[in-house]
Design a protein that fits this description.
By secondary structure, the protein is of the alpha/beta class. It is built from eleven helices and five strands, in the order ααααβαβαβαβααβαα.
Amino acid sequence: MSTERFLERYVGSLIDGERQACRDVLDEAIRTGVEAKTIYRKVIWPALETIDKLYRADRINVATEHMATRISRTVADQLQAYLPRQEANGKRILITCADGEPEELGAQMCADLFESEGWQVFFIGGGVPNDEILSVVGQLRPDILLIFGTQPIGVANVRKLIDLVRQVGSNPTMNIMLSGGVFNRAEDLWKEVNADLFAATADEALTMAAQATPRVPQVVIPGAPKKRRRRRRPPLLVGAGA
């Protein structure tokens, strides 16, 4: 069943700040047979992206963006109980994100969807220091570390976290995946910060994670000359998506 009409009505209600109208749209979708997982992927997620685009284009203000995001987070909390539960697949994922409310929501939705697919999910949200994330990686040894939705100003810290994880090597076969935020807007920026995987949407994240093979650590030969990494111009890191 097409979800386009639900998406259009939902986005309109979000922009108007109509909490009950948003709930009514999704209640109707469920009553007409749309699965909760589909609502996540085809209504709430694209609505989140639409709100972000409107805000960046100065077509809505901060107050509207905040209201819309908080409404969607409340709706996602309620909808999570309707997600199906597949059998455990034996894989673990650790999810962290930037401090902003949109990033928290996108990461939370990824956490819900991965859990629905049988992953053991650990969601630590934003505002966690890199050394503490590193400690959790060593304790839990997840198959994937998903870093979701950073703003341009946060790119340097993502690079620092990835470098720290690789240098310590407490979980060398773990893949690091990036999604959301500036990495969606700046092509190949995820490669620049040395991530292993990139997913533009929750659907892509689920698919890529399921297909990913354990990372093969690079072997450093003592005395061998280090390869120089080609540097890119700073505007890619600073100006992308700003």
